[in-house]
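SAMPLE LOG
Freezer: B-3
Tube label: C17
Construct: single chain, 131 aa
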Amino acid sequence: MKATYSPDKEGMKLNVRKEPVPGSKVVRQISAGDYDAETVEHGWVRFADGYADARFLVVTDGRHAIDADERKPIEEPKEAEKPAADDDERAALKKMTNPQLYDLAEQSGIHVAKGSTKAELIDAILAGADD
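STRUCTURE (predicted):
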């Protein structure tokens, strides 16, 4: 099974997370290209080392695209309008307090400056990048 990531903008990367939940630790980021995938479940594509949001990938079983929600072959790859990156994750993170966000960033190995705003904390966590 192959998963293809084709970002809307050059240089964008997709987070691969330890668990199939928003806000889970980012284990790596993938750039545009094809990747070996193991399965698609509940809107998440499972790779050997983690999970990525299936909304941003086209998954094929060799000949047919796989519907990420239905887990059945479809005739053509979906060309639906892609939602803004990490919208669901951003909404989940906005519900957290700043101390919770600092803890999540620390547990994920993301360094954020003391005194960061909630928006800055969320952006850093979603990017999975060290500041």
